[in-house]
TrEMBL record:
One of its GO terms (molecular function) is heme binding. The chain crosses the membrane at residues 46-63, 102-124, 136-154. Residues 178-253 form the Cytochrome c domain. This is Menaquinol:cytochrome c reductase cytochrome c subunit. It is found in: Membrane. InterPro entries: Cyt_b/b6_C, Cyt_b/b6_C_sf, Cyt_c-like_dom, Cyt_c-like_dom_sf, Cytb/b6-like_sf, Cytochrome_c550/c551-like, MenaQ_cyt_c_Rdtase_cyt_b/c-su. Its main location: membrane.
Length: 255
């Protein structure tokens, strides 16, 4: 038998004889299913972003961000309050197990473990199912994180003294003070500056004396007898010095 005798070669119709360039099909062949990234899709994204940006700008104009007075490092009684999205961490640091000598646990270890667990969720639960009931690990971790954040934020808002915070952070009016006068010298000498501030603006231990509306006689009486948290006998000078100091404080007005 000769080689090749009786053999036939049949071509495979699934393989084209001509080599065509690898060009994707036009988007018009898939109506309603896909679109070009530029400019169709990107333009829609910009339009939606512009709407949200304009809305946010209108909100900031209608409701400006609240401002407090200038930070005073000498005011040890000031209680800072973080923004709302950090209130849950702020509340966490109030508990015994996460405060004081255990601040590192509340500030770094516990949040680090929580966020680390969320980042590892895709590797901890690699099931192909999409139903929440079929993915108990991932759903449980997410529900626990959301519930903890909501609870701690709620506790922080409910237990915070908002009235005291508004007073301690209130912007105080600047006063017209003659710091070369005898009255201001007595104000410093008698230690009033430690509680009421160098500009009589008040502080953690004493209220503002600007525009107090009190006559000199009442101020002198308070300096001798005390009032509220101010104990009696604070003033140690003579009656003449008390008269000068009282008139000085009574005449302090805002600019």
């Amino acid at each position: 038998m000769h080689r090749g005798k009786g053999m036939k070669f049949v071509g495979d119709s699934r393989i084209p004889a001509e080599r065509k360039p690898n060009i994707p099909k036009d988007y018009s062949e898939y109506p309603g299913k896909t679109e070009a990234f530029w400019p169709n899709f990107l333009l829609k994204e910009w339009l939606v972003g512009a709407v949200f940006l304009v809305g946010y700008l209108c909100l900031t104009v209608a409701h400006p961000s609240p401002l407090e007075r200038v930070a005073d490092p000498t005011d040890t009684g000031y209680i800072p309050l973080p923004d709302w999205y950090f209130l849950f961490l702020y509340q966490l640091l109030k508990y015994t197990f996460a405060a004081g000598p255990y601040t590192v646990i509340g500030a770094f270890i516990m949040p680090g473990l929580a966020f680390g667990a969320l980042m590892l969720a895709p590797w901890l639960d690699r099931g192909p199912h999409r139903r929440p009931a079929k993915r108990p690990v991932a759903v449980g971790m997410m529900l626990l994180a959301v519930a903890s954040t909501i609870f701690l934020t709620w506790e922080s808002v409910a237990t915070h003294d908002w009235e005291a915070a508004a007073e301690q952070g209130k912007i105080q009016a600047e006063a017209e003070i003659d710091k070369e006068s005898d009255g201001y010298a007595l104000y410093q000498e008698q230690g009033c500056i430690s509680c009421h501030g160098d500009n009589l603006q008040g502080g953690a231990a004493g209220p503002s004396l600007v525009d107090n509306g009190l006559p000199p006689e009442d101020i002198a009486k308070i300096a001798k007898e005390g009032q509220g948290e101010m104990p009696p006998g604070v003033f140690k000078g003579t009656d003449e010095e008390l008269d000068v100091l009282s008139k000085f404080i009574s005449e302090v007005t805002a600019k």
